[in-house]
Amino acid sequence: MEAVVFFEFASEASGIRSGLLDRIGPIALSGDGRLNFVGTERDERGRPVSEVIALGFKSAETAQAVMLRWRGDPAFPAGVKTRLMRIEPIWSIEPLAMMFP
């Protein structure tokens, strides 16, 4: 995975989650990307406040093209914030490697 697009919207916004998931389906079927997670932020009483959908892409160029296409679509929900994050490889020591050098 080379890039992740985050879609953030208010939980009370009707139909946005299902609409975005409907758009993600064809991308996943084509093999260009996949749904990474759906997260919900809750307030102190446990009520949903906002939601984030993360869509991972094999190519940052494909992610950029999808974002631009969706933003230009008049049917795309106005209340959705989008962010493109490029994945950077990092080096880390796994716990097993530290235990058995």
Q: Rg, please?
A: 16 Å
**Average pLDDT taken over every residue:** 91
Please report the total strand number as a whole number. Answer: 4
The helix-and-strand class reads alpha+beta
Count of helix runs: 3
> Would you list the SSEs in sequence order as H and E?
EHEEHEH
Shape: globular
What ranges have pLDDT less than 50 throughout 5 or more consecutive residues?
none
CATH architecture classification: 2-Layer Sandwich
**CATH level-four homologous superfamily name:** RRM (RNA recognition motif) domain
How many structural domains can be distinguished in the coordinates? 1
Question: Strand order within the widest sheet?
Answer: 2-3-1-4
Task: Using the coordinates above, name the CATH class.
Answer: Alpha Beta
What share of the residues does DSSP label as strand, in percent? 25-35%
Protein name: YCII-related domain-containing protein
Organism: Bosea vaviloviae
List keywords for this structure.
alpha+beta, 101 residues, 4 strands, 3 helices, 4-stranded antiparallel sheet, Alpha-Beta Plaits
Would you spell out the secondary-structure blueprint of this structure?
Elements: E1 3-10, H1 16-30, E2 33-42, E3 48-57, H2 60-72, E4 81-86, H3 95-99
Antiparallel strand pairs: 1-3, 1-4, 2-3
